[in-house]
Structures are given as C-alpha cells and as structure tokens.
Write a structure and sequence with these properties.
- The protein has 192 residues and is an all-alpha fold.
- The protein folds into two domains: 101 residues, no CATH class; 64 residues, no CATH class.
- It is built from seven helices and no strands.
- Helix 2 packs across helix 4 and helix 4 packs across helix 5.
- The protein is extended.
- The protein starts with a helix and ends with a helix.
C-alpha cells in the first residue's frame, strides 16, 4: 500500500526505481565483463572473488554463491559503503568546523607527516622501489623469471610488477607493447 501511495506523491523519491534499475544493469554488465576475463587465482575485485567461489561450489545445490546473490550483494555494498562513508565524512567535517583548534592540529600533523608539493610539480612514480621490494619478489635484485611462475609452473600475475607505470601515467600502449614483445621474442627464439 505504501508503494502505491508513494507513486502519487511528488518529489525526488520517484527517481529511485529508475536509478536502482541503472545500478543493477551496471552491476550485471560488470559481472559479465569480469566473468569473461576471469583469471583463476588472480582476483581483481569482489566480483572476481565471488565468481571463483561460485565455481568452487557449483556442484552444491544449496550454495549461496549464485549470480542473483552476487548482484544483490554488490548492490548492497554500493549503498552500504556509500552511505556510511558519506555520513561519517559529513559528521567528521561538522566536528572539525565546530572545533577549529582540532582542525588546525590535524592539518599541522598532515603537513608534518605527509608534507606538501609545490603547485604544478611533476610527480612520477618511483617504480624501482616497487620492483625491488623483497616483500613482493623473492629475489628482487636478480633476474628471476620464477617471480612470475606459481608452484605448478603456470604464469601468475603480480600486481607489483608495473613496467608500464600506473595511475594517470599508465602507458596507453601497454597491450600493444606486450603483444609485440611476445611476438618478436618468440619469433626470434623460434628461429635460432
């Protein structure tokens, strides 16, 4: 009854079903894209992890790992994560406005610990710090292809390996470069 009554009331709440439909279509599209490019053992996000558990439990008829539950759980994460974070930030900013001396202390600590860059400073990621990290690579200072192979001899992805940079400075030609390197190297070695 409340739903019927609400349909006749003016206001922004009338857009909720439309927005909910858009969100569900977006999530369904992401689920399809993730399923099509899924790499077992190298999950990129929550959807990949869920899909991998679905695969493990596909023979269990009472499994909770279903496509419908994936869609609804992802939708729930969007709403729960968005609302709680925005409410907490709003309350935090309210407290900082109410107590400016606390805001000043927080600002000083951020400047002291993190620091500031002058405006218009070019920032480049220091890739060597990541590529030589012993917590990520077993032998970081030696040429060791085994850093990219799992126990069964299969290629394993390593997100710390960023030869094409990352973030805003990510190389747009990474896919083409990888393909060319693979083709050239294989062709040359094949013809030795």
């Amino acid at each position: 009854m409340a739903e019927t009554l609400m349909q006749h009331m003016p206001g922004p709440h009338r857009r909720i079903p439309v927005m909910l439909g858009r969100m569900r279509r977006f999530i369904a599209r992401r689920m399809r894209d993730n399923a099509a490019t899924l790499q077992p053992g190298a999950p990129r996000d929550f959807i990949d992890c869920f899909l991998q558990h679905m695969e493990k439990e596909k023979s269990n008829p009472s499994s909770e790992f279903t496509l419908e539950n994936l869609e609804l759980t992802t939708l729930n994460l969007f709403f729960a994560g968005t609302e709680t974070v925005s409410s907490t930030l709003r309350y935090g900013f309210l407290m900082l406005m109410k107590y400016p001396h606390v805001q000043e202390k927080v600002h000083e600590e951020i400047d002291q610990v993190i620091g500031r860059l002058p405006q218009d400073t070019d920032v480049y990621p220091l890739l060597s710090s990541v590529l030589h990290d012993p917590s990520v690579f077993k032998h970081p200072n030696a040429f060791d292809p085994m850093n990219f192979v799992d126990e069964s001899g299969r290629f394993k992805r390593n997100d710390a390996f960023v030869p094409f940079s990352s973030g805003k400075r990510l190389c747009l030609g990474e896919g083409l470069a990888r393909m060319e390197l693979f083709l050239f190297l294989c062709t040359i070695l094949q013809n030795l």
